[in-house]
Amino acid sequence: MPLTELLHYFNQEQRRQYGAHIAPEQALRMDRGRVSADYAGLRLGTRFQPLLPLHPDQPYGHEALLTVEGRAGALSPSAAFMLPTTGEEFVYLDRLCRTVHALNFLLQPNSGGLLGLNIHPRHLASVRGDHGLAFERILRQCGLQPEQVMLEIRHDASLDPADLARAVASYRQHGYRIALDHLAAPARPAIWRAIQPDMVKLAPALGQRPDDRDRVLDQAQRQKVAQRLLIGVTCDDAQALALTHVQADRVAPPTANLSGPTWRRGAFP
């Protein structure tokens, strides 16, 4: 399906599902050769940051990072998520962001391996059943499979482990990979059991707290997490800590287009 038709289809489907009071008529649009979305006077877009493997047997990919622009200029992504007033609107916004990212990934001339997409913890609490099904339909319209996507769930100690386990089990049933994102302190054993992540991403703050960092890495090792990274560290530091991946502005900053080593481009198990 041509991209213009795909945008029209998604805009229609969103209005049908969420209603005109939540989904504007032309939320998704082409903007200077890229897909953006309008939400509450904000423009939402995408930048991609490589997830670089330190070893050839580890998967290569990109995390899609949300950009938010208001009338006065760039805003923090969290600013957009302060605006929804209902659970339904929150789910709409969360899926809208991931749809923008998937479409911009589709526009790239080369495959970027795995596509890392953030899913907000509040989304997990707002959707009651069959997590991942609605977004799988969106992905397939974009020519992508859930197996190509790693959903990144930010650590939130307030989440109910039972609800989290049900959501993650549903995501895995659809084929998604799961990352435990921005872990800034050792997590409860129940959180590890609920998520059983393929990747754990340590928050940058742990780079300054070696005791907590080592405790988190010890937890990850005991949970047999195959892929580990500390956001912001260089390749040398990552190797010294026996990490598997690097995601750092100093190594490969976020860009509008996919980037990274050509020997991993398009490669995912």
What would you say this structure looks like, in words?
The protein is of the alpha/beta class and 269 residues long. The chain has a domain at 47-62 and 80-246: TIM Barrel (Alpha-Beta Barrel). The protein has helices at 3-18, 77-80, 87-106, 121-126, 133-141, 161-174, 189-195, 210-222, 235-240; strands at 28-31, 34-39, 42-53, 61-70, 73-75, 114-119, 149-154, 177-183, 199-202, 227-230, 245-246. Strands 1, 2, 3, 4, 5, 6, 7, 8, 9, 10 and 11 form an eleven-stranded mixed beta sheet that branches. Helix 6 runs parallel beside helix 7 (189-195). The protein is globular and about 50 Å long.
- What's the end-to-end separation, in Å? 27 Å
Gyration radius, to the nearest Å?
18 Å
CATH superfamily of the domain at 47-62 and 80-246: EAL domain
User: What does the overall shape look like?
Assistant: globular
Report helical residue fraction. 25-40%
| Largest sheet entry | 11 strands, mixed
Total of DSSP H or I helical runs spanning 4+ residues: 9
CATH topology value of the domain at 47-62 and 80-246? TIM Barrel
Number of strands: 11
Mean pLDDT: 89
